[in-house]
Design a protein that fits this description.
With about 200 residues, the chain is of the alpha+beta class. The chain folds into two domains: about 30-130, Alpha-Beta Complex (Hemagglutinin Ectodomain, Chain B); about 130-190, Nucleotide Exchange Factor Grpe, Chain A, domain 2 (Roll), CATH 2.30.22. The protein has helices at about 30-105, 110-130, 195-200, and strands spanning about 130-135, 145-155, 165-170, 170-175, 175-180, 180-185. The strands form two sheets. Strands 1-4-5 form a three-stranded antiparallel beta sheet. A three-stranded mixed beta sheet has the order 2-6-3, with no helix packed on it. β4 and β5 form a beta hairpin. Mean pLDDT is about 85; it is low at about 15-20 and about 190-200.
Length: about 200
Amino acid sequence: MAEEKRPEAEPVPETAAEEPSASPQDAPGGAEDRVAQLESELEQLRRKADENWEKFVRASAEADNIRRRAERDLQQAHKFGLEKFAADLLAVKDSLEMGLKAAEGSTDVARLREGSELTLKMLGQAFDRHGIAEVNPLGEKFDPERHEAMAMQPSAEQPPNTVLEVIQKGYLLKERLLRPAMVLVAKAPEEGPSTRIDEQA
């Protein structure tokens, strides 16, 4: 009996052989495009950072300039304010000196009084120009914020805690207390058994 021939295996076509898969890096425009994109973004961020730094430096310099100008203006304001007040006081001093010179050997009391009143008026005008106000609380209610009580005195005419007498006037500088007024303050009259001479007789 003749032997059967086995069919020969068909050769595998070359095109069917496995080819290595292409990596993303070998793809067209892959890694190189990504690197270029990152470099572009980095450059934009660098430019933005440089712009922000320049803005910060300019703002910091401007803030320093504003602070220095404010300090200089404040110093000038204080200096100028003091100069104006000093100039007003010089006029008062001149008036006092002229009054003293005129008073030498003079017995005219009325004229001396008139000169003193004129000088006092000049001083009051200087105070007004610079916001200095008098605290003269005669007849007012005692205010511990602006008055300093030197003593309490019984009074039947005035209610308690009323200023009976101003020993020394106080002064305000633009509503800020420079010196409190020294005052005598009323208190209720002391009640007790009255002693009369005719009752003892």
